[in-house]
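Backbone geometry:
***
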Amino acid sequence: MNLANLLPRRIAATGFPRFGLRRRRDRKLQVAAKVRRVAFMHVPKTSGVAIRSGLAAALTPNVTVSGFDRCSFDAYQDFESVDPSISGMIYSSPASLPPRADLIVGHFAFSTLRQAYPDAQLLTLLREPCSRLLSHWLFWRQHTDAELAPWGCLAERVRKARQPIAVFLNDPGLSCQTDNLMLRMLLWPHPLLPSGRFIDPLHDARLLRQAMANLQEFDFVDVVENGAVGDRLQSWLCRPFIYPRANETRPIPQQFRTPLDRELTPEVMDLLEFRSRLDFHLWAAIARLRFPGRDISKLRHQTIIKNVARYGVLMAC
């Protein structure tokens, strides 16, 4: 798939003009970051907990909002079984979010953040999507029943990660979490993102164009693979930023372990790529900006190999 063929003509011709403009306006953005609230669209398994911790320490906000919108749950409605400590962090609409927050961090879609906080500085991180999806599966798989108890009936969805990854990725009921999640968070709600179904490839070009357009609305975008992301955030915020390691996936409980090489069959590798085909183009677009002149396909290959080796240790029997 040729990315240039999927982009609006003005983007394909000029190379993401909004991102370029933001680079030329760094000083103006730094001043703006001091006085305007910050909203972080946390895509799961993109170092978000570490970013949240660093933002809170750097900005010392008066009111912080964190949690989820309905993008994370698709059509699921049975929140009465969820412990109030969790259900209180699940917001049904942009209007239900606290209006006076000055730091907003969570699994919120772009539309939620833009509607609830139209004056906020938006930031997000993207990650090589096959690695992100594998990490997502393992992160869910690590949780014991005792840890999942507060999630009530929602825990049944997380327990599905105890199945082979081929079954996990083919479950349409999990599509809101496993099928091009980065794109979904940029576009939700959208008529071409049907509830309980995977994205129809016939709509890929249209969805990707729209997701690219929304991504350009962010004031700060980077990729997890950029080792300088902490320094870039510090420069953008114009204040010290500490980028700690946080919320990393633990070794999988023994009863849920299986050799990773048995899971990652050629069919599963194809499926991982298919479930992240649109997210790859989003990630690659930003990676090309952050690593000019670098072979992005090679970067992706190296990243996947490194992460699979690490994940194999977590699943070692």
